[in-house]
Design a protein that fits this description.
Elements: H1 2-10, E1 16-19, H2 26-33, E2 36-39, H3 46-49, E3 53-55, H4 64-72, E4 76-78, H5 79-86, E5 92-97, H6 102-115, E6 121-128, E7 133-136, E8 142-146, E9 151-153, E10 156-159, E11 168-171, H7 185-197, E12 204-208, H8 212-218, E13 225-229, H9 241-256, H10 261-268, E14 279-281, E15 287-291, H11 296-309, E16 315-320, H12 324-328, H13 332-335, E17 344-348, E18 362-365, H14 368-377, E19 384-388, H15 394-400
Parallel strand pairs: 1-2, 3-4, 5-8, 5-11, 6-8, 11-12, 12-13, 15-19, 16-17, 16-19, 17-18
Antiparallel strand pairs: 6-7, 9-10, 14-15
Helix pairs in contact: 1-2, 6-9, 6-10, 7-8, 9-10, 14-15
């Protein structure tokens, strides 16, 4: 929503907003934009003064502000619907989708098009480090957007990406996630299939030909061009097998508009990465990475990538159980195994998790100070610390830097 707010400002709209909480890096972006933020779920005066409200998908019926908007008949949209009507019209749209790697692949594609002089508009689900921002609107024909499969809003239960009308759709991979809205992987595939049914024969799908669920999805029916990508074995500056796949998908997408493979590789050799995607954080005591991983596949991929980059180093992991899927235990059978390459794991969760049981390697805590103290107490035995959370990690970073 912070990126959407930035796009709206670039299009000439006056923007204010409200939420129950704001976290870096998006809170920092909102402040830099000069957007008035109201940290409350109560009804605010701005609602009666506005022309329209964009309602985020985290809000439900029963929320005071939602009920007020409905009672007063205030014009309102979902974020994706507003983007379709006010941002994507007359653009050639790249939509980057899949369970893992959306933000990184989106950012890689932005880098390739920028280096090729295409000056694309974009909207990313994180902070693109080359520009230190999550959005940009330009006069370019091209728009690159992250296509989330999560539902659009309380009044539109279709996946967000249904609204984006892709000319090129990247499907990185498909796995079960979002247990709060999907009961199984087949329900996720159905949403992707609904999207594919909207794509004409001259549109394009870039996909991993080794991903079982993606192949199963395409067998349900596909009427546009199917382009499997081949993983490039090595790109300087790209860490990890999963990121090489992300890069290969972005390169294949760029080839559709005439950008040569070698030119894309050269662009990615200067890729700065994405904030909180294996982002290297300054720390004098050990190598510290901040990562957004919150699914077992992403966890193991990130640890493997760091293990490969730093062979023989001892890795400690801080992991926060925060997503609805994790809290519910949807991934409990795979979680512990995903940490197999780490020496010690500190799991943090504010909620009571009945399904988790401590092991020799993995223990659960409710207090960040305790975790940071234990990591610091083991400083002689740790070379690398990876922080993994889809929430705010600024507090534990600060604590680990105080020694």
């Amino acid at each position: 929503m912070a990126g959407l707010a930035g796009l709206a400002i670039q299009k000439g709209y006056k923007v204010t907003g409200q939420d129950k909480a704001y976290y870096p890096p998006m809170s920092t972006q909102l402040t830099s934009l000069g957007i008035k933020v109201n940290q409350t779920e109560d009804i605010i005066d701005d609602l009666d003064k506005c022309d329209a409200v964009i309602i985020g998908n985290s809000l439900s019926r029963g929320n005071k502000t939602v009920e007020y908007i409905l009672d007063k008949g205030i014009e309102h949209y979902s974020g994706p619907e507003w983007i379709k009507n006010h941002i994507l019209k007359n653009k050639y749209v790249f939509v980057v989708s899949g369970t893992h790697g959306k933000t990184t692949t989106t950012s890689m594609l932005i880098k390739i098009l920028q280096e090729s002089g295409k000056n694309p508009s974009y909207l990313v689900g994180g902070i693109y480090k080359d520009n230190d921002i999550s959005y940009k609107y330009t006069s370019s024909d091209y728009f690159i957007i992250e296509g989330d499969e999560y539902d659009t809003s309380f009044f539109d239960k279709r996946s967000k990406f249904i609204h984006y009308k892709p000319d090129v759709l990247i499907i990185n991979n498909l796995e079960y996630d979002h247990s709060d809205i999907f009961e199984n992987i087949d329900q996720i595939k159905k949403q992707f299939h609904f999207l594919i049914r909207t794509m004409s024969k001259n549109k394009n799908i870039i996909y991993d030909h080794e991903d079982f669920h993606t192949l199963s999805l395409l067998s349900m029916g596909c009427w546009c061009k199917k382009i499997p990508y081949k993983k490039i074995k090595n790109i300087n500056n790209v860490i990890g097998d999963h990121n090489l796949k992300n890069a290969s998908a972005a390169i294949a997408a760029a080839e559709i508009i005439g950008i040569k493979k070698n030119d894309s590789i050269l662009a990615l050799e200067n890729f700065s990465g994405v904030k909180r995607r294996l982002e290297l954080i300054t720390n004098k005591n050990f190598i510290l990475y901040d990562d957004f991983a919150h699914h077992p596949t992403a966890i193991s991929a990130s640890i493997e990538a760091i293990k490969t980059k730093h062979p023989g180093k001892k890795i400690f992991v801080f992991f926060e159980i925060r997503s609805n899927s994790m809290i519910s235990g949807a991934h409990k059978n795979k979680l512990i195994d995903s940490f197999s390459e780490a020496e010690e794991v500190f799991i943090y969760c504010k909620n009571n998790i009945s399904w988790f049981h401590d092991s020799i390697k993995c223990k659960i805590y409710k207090d960040l100070d305790t975790i940071s103290s234990k990591i610091i107490a083991n400083i002689e035995n740790v070379d690398i610390v990876i922080l993994m959370s889809n929430g705010d990690t600024s507090y534990i970073i600060k604590k680990l830097n105080q020694l």
